[in-house]
């Protein structure tokens, strides 16, 4: 029912002047006259002729105000809405008399005595003075009846009781062996109460594109989980005066006008706990990996207020990615939010997956949230994690491109809820959102379908809040609040390298830094293709390992100098010795930073390589031999000086004896290899 019809109904009811029953009966009589009502609706009859029909109608004799009201409907072309206006006016009259409309659905037609008994019982239970009760027959109920009054449904049917019993049996715990399962099932059946099922309900008014407009849920709240008769869950995302907008968290098949929608009284939530580790689930936490059900009784709401300022600890503990270029120049700390941004096919997901692989043995729980990705891409990520043994401490939450927009919308919030559970237990969590560009598109789709006003690039006005409230949930807690942390690696896909677009600038301003991947570097063979000049970590420096921080001190400056000199050499071939040395040094640094996929590097190796490179000890190694030489160097260090490498790994410090060991091994490696190097 639209607000316009409500206004017309209120105006019609206001004409009653103490005799609402007579007025409404007059309008009903007009509608019952098929000849008159047909002419008033016909497009072939002019407005002047219709006004003459109203003037001649005997039912309107002496009813000037009512005739004027009907003529107003004619002038505004709203005569076709008269039946709906009359129905709403009757509801207003019934409410004014302390009554209510009631619908009873029975398995078979009730007799007259049963009807009267039901009317008296409902009036007594609801405290009503009057009742307009209508009856429907539905043999599928098997027995009993379903009563709907004032937005509340009382289900006394056999079908409803069987459904509640079946739900209880589905939730029954397995128990120890077959006997335990049988005993639990017996307890569930014996403890079943076959009473009423009372719930606040509404009905679908219109549905399409994963959105249902529902009337009757007068007390629904934003973000509340609702259940449709078809079994599909939904979430309230729009509240208006006459209806609520519900996004369907599943298939809309079978949902049609009149479908009953029930309130649950709780926000949308997902299962959490250790049982999710090693599993692939959808946005609602249901398993999709074919490994059976997930047994956990704990749940958390997908929307949760971010931790306050007083409960947060400064970021000062490193989270090693195992990628030399990142750990050296764009370090990440536990509890940080570091954006990975770049064009498509530049290695964004690869960086995130390698970071997950590097957490093996680091007591970090990893969550990979795939938003709008191809199912084949998610399968590849799972296979990679499985092959490297990373699924033991990881989980994947997938809302693929084939899933409805509502599931893609809630996916990152569901992943954050799962991560917050572990963070509240004092554990460290790494969560990857791949990617938030598609998340913003899904939210834009929902907002446009909900008829919200579009803004820049058709995104709604609150698209910044969409991501800020998500990423603010990542933090490091103080010991008083558990001492856990959640590190977020959101991914944003740019178009033609445009980092100044709407969504990229939003997320850049929310996060604590960004890793920018460049297409030109990627195709030039520099992988990972990190643009050092545009990449930054605003808080990770305080969490960087001392050994890496010390040895990588001049790395960023040396690379910046190399880029600058490289531009000038395009215009001149006459280079002095110092310039040529700087160029050669820069090329060797870039060669050192190249790293294959699926091969994260421990801190000890990073410290050795960075010391050798930034100290100029690799400058006399031919460029084509740098990769092989550095691999031989770290392997020799691990073989001959395992204690030194262990010390660097555990303490994070590069001591004097460690430096001497690196120098001696490096000089010996140079001596052995110099005979085989090609000039």
Automatic annotation (TrEMBL):
Domain ATPase F1/V1/A1 complex alpha/beta subunit nucleotide-binding: 322-537
Catalytic activities: ATP + H2O + 4 H(+)(in) = ADP + phosphate + 5 H(+)(out)
Residue ranges annotated for the ATPase F1/V1/A1 complex alpha/beta subunit N-terminal domain, each copy included: 199-265
Binding site for ATP: 342-349
Membrane topology classification: Peripheral membrane protein
Residue ranges of every copy of the ATP synthase alpha subunit C-terminal domain listed in the record: 544-668
Subcellular location: Cell membrane; Membrane
Pfam families xref list: ATP-synt_ab (PF00006), ATP-synt_ab_C (PF00306), ATP-synt_ab_N (PF02874), OSCP (PF00213)
Name of the protein in question: Multifunctional fusion protein
Species of origin: Candidatus Intestinimonas pullistercoris
Top-level taxonomy: Bacteria, Bacillati, Bacillota, Clostridia, Eubacteriales
């Amino acid at each position: 029912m639209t607000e316009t019809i409500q206004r017309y109904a209120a105006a019609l009811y206001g004409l009653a002047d103490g005799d609402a029953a007579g007025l409404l009966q007059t309008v009903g009589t007009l509608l019952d006259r098929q000849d008159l009502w047909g002419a008033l609706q016909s497009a072939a009859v002019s407005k002047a002729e219709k006004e003459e029909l109203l003037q001649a109608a005997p039912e309107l004799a002496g009813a000037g105000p009512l005739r004027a009201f009907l003529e107003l409907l004619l002038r505004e072309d709203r005569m076709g809405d008269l039946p709906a206006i009359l129905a709403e006016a009757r509801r207003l009259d019934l409410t004014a008399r302390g009554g209510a409309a009631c619908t009873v659905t029975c398995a078979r037609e009730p007799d007259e005595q049963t009807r009267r008994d039901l009317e008296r019982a409902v009036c007594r239970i609801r405290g009503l003075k009057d009742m307009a009760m209508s009856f429907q027959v539905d043999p599928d109920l098997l027995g009993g009846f379903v009563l709907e009054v004032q937005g509340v449904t009382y289900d006394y049917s056999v079908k409803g009781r069987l459904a509640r019993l079946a739900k209880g049996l589905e939730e029954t715990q397995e128990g120890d062996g077959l006997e335990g399962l049988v005993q639990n099932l017996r307890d569930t059946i014996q403890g079943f109460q076959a009473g009423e099922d009372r719930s606040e309900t509404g009905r679908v008014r219109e549905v399409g594109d994963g959105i249902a407009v529902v009337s009757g849920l007068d007390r629904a709240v934003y973000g509340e989980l609702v259940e449709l008769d078809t079994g599909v869950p939904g979430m309230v995302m729009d509240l208006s005066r006459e209806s609520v907008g519900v996004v369907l968290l599943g298939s809309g098949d079978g949902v049609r006008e009149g479908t009953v929608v029930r309130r649950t009284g709780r926000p949308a939530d997902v299962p959490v706990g250790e049982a999710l580790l090693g599993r692939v689930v959808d946005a609602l936490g249901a398993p999709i990996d074919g490994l059976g059900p997930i047994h956990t009784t704990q749940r958390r709401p997908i929307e949760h207020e971010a931790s306050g300022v007083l409960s947060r600890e400064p970021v000062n503990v490193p989270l090693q990615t195992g990628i030399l270029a990142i750990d050296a120049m764009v370090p990440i700390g536990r509890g940080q939010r570091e954006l990975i941004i770049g064009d498509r096919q530049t290695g964004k997901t690869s960086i995130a997956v390698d970071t997950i692989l590097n957490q093996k043995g680091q007591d970090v729980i990893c969550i990979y949230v795939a938003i709008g990705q191809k199912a084949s891409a998610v399968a590849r990520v799972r296979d990679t994690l499985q092959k490297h043994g990373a699924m033991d401490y990881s989980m994947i939450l997938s809302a693929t491109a084939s899933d409805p927009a509502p599931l893609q919308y809630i996916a990152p919030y569901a992943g954050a809820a799962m991560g917050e559970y572990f963070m509240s237990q004092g554990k460290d969590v790494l969560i990857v959102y791949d990617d938030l560009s598609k998340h913003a598109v899904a939210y834009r789709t929902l907002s446009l379908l909900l008829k919200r006003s579009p803004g820049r690039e058709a995104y709604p006005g609150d698209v910044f809040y969409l991501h800020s409230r998500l990423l603010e949930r990542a933090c490091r807690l103080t010991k008083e609040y558990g001492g856990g942390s959640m590190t977020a690696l959101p991914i944003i896909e740019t178009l033609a390298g445009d980092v100044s677009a709407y969504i990229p600038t939003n997320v850049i301003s929310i996060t604590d830094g960004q890793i920018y991947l460049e297409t030109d570097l990627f195709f030039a063979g520099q992988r990972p293709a990190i643009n050092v000049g545009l990449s930054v970590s605003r808080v990770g420096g305080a969490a960087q390992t001392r050994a890496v921080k010390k040895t990588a001190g001049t790395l960023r400056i040396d690379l910046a100098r190399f880029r600058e000199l490289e531009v000038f050499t395009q215009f001149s071939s006459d280079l002095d010795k110092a310039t040529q040395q700087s160029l050669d040094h820069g090329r060797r640094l870039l060669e050192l930073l190249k790293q294959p996929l699926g091969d994260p590097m421990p801190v000890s190796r990073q410290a050795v390589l960075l010391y050798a490179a930034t100290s100029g000890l690799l400058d006399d190694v031919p460029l084509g031999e740098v990769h092989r030489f550095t691999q031989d160097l770290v392997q020799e260090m691990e073989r001959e000086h395992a204690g030194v490498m262990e010390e660097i790994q555990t303490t994070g410090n590069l001591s004097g004896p460690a430096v001497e060991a690196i120098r001696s091994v490096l000089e010996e490696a140079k001596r052995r290899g110099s005979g085989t190097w090609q000039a």
